[in-house]
Design brief:
Length: 295
């Protein structure tokens, strides 16, 4: 009887221990270009990675048009290398760049199936995408593709060469400032103050965009952009630190950080729950975003 009791105790202890183990989450963020996910999700991605979760960024185009003085194959190659360096800086598992031309992205069936396969192969718990209302046609079409995959990815007869997931992931939109047909909804707020330097290093890895193409498009005098690595990081960080949330925005933070003095918060990333995927409860969101509640 003693041996039986000991056996039962050990079985229960093992079961409890396994149940208490933290689930490793698989997160897939999908943008139109290399650097889209970094700017909207880079801080939260770094937090997930630090916690041991699997994060992948997927760019649906190779970015071969996004520069004022170079383009085509050489630019695509450069941006792939930049994405690889950004992944290292953020600590994420993978940064995949598809070989579709920048500025020519369409929500085709072929692309939808490509995205469905990648969601399945990553066994995604969370999929992030862009909203299909945006200034850039590639962004709009990338958002539509992710929306179209949100239900179809669980249909076995769609892309049958890749087994469907047993459950539909939570689909989220990454933040934007567009107002039509409706403004972005700040359903989930993640404070990223502790990893802002990591996010800035990830952005800085996209040198062609942060220090060349982006400044050129907004008329920045190139002579004002530093050349040294330390100075460039400081310059880029200053640009991002100027995006401090206003009082109304911080109201959305209080829900998820009830014990934090939000008046001291400087950097937040927001996410909207897409109604096409799994609809999580607040408790499920806290489990899927284990960084919530503490800085």
């Amino acid at each position: 009887m003693k041996n039986l009791a000991l056996f039962i105790f050990l079985c229960l202890a093992f079961t409890t221990s396994k149940a208490q183990e933290k689930k490793v989450l698989n997160i897939l963020a999908i943008g139109a270009h290399p650097d889209d996910c970094d700017s909207k999700f880079g801080g939260t991605a770094a937090l997930f990675a630090k916690m041991g979760h699997n994060v992948k960024f997927l760019a649906l185009t190779n970015g071969d048009a996004g520069h004022q003085s170079m383009g085509g194959g050489p630019l695509a190659k450069r941006r792939r290398l930049e994405a690889k360096d950004a992944a290292k800086a953020l600590g994420i598992a993978e940064y995949e760049v598809l070989d579709n031309h920048d500025g020519e992205l369409f929500p085709t069936l072929t692309l939808r199936l490509d995205v469905i396969r990648r969601i399945r192969n990553w066994n995604a718990d969370i999929v992030l995408g862009l909203r299909p209302n945006d200034y850039h046609p590639d962004h709009r079409n990338a958002g539509s593709v992710v929306q179209d995959a949100a239900y179809m990815n669980i249909v076995p007869n769609v892309a049958p060469d890749t087994p469907p997931l047993k459950k539909n992931p939570v689909f989220l939109y990454m933040n934007d400032n567009f107002k039509k047909p409706y403004p972005f909804q700040k359903d989930i707020a993640v404070i990223i103050d502790d990893v802002i330097d990591t996010k800035v290093k990830g952005l800085a890895a996209h040198e062609s965009q942060m220090f060349e193409w982006g400044p050129w498009t907004n008329g920045t005098d190139p002579s004002t952009i530093p050349s040294g690595e330390t100075e460039r990081l400081a310059w880029l960080k200053a640009k991002w630190m100027n995006r401090k949330p206003d009082a109304s925005t911080l109201e959305a933070v209080k829900k998820w950080y009830p014990t934090v003095d939000v008046s001291n918060v400087k950097q937040v990333e927001f996410f909207e729950i897409c109604e096409y995927g799994k609809q999580p409860t607040d408790q499920e969101i806290k489990q899927m975003f284990p960084m919530l509640g503490s800085k």
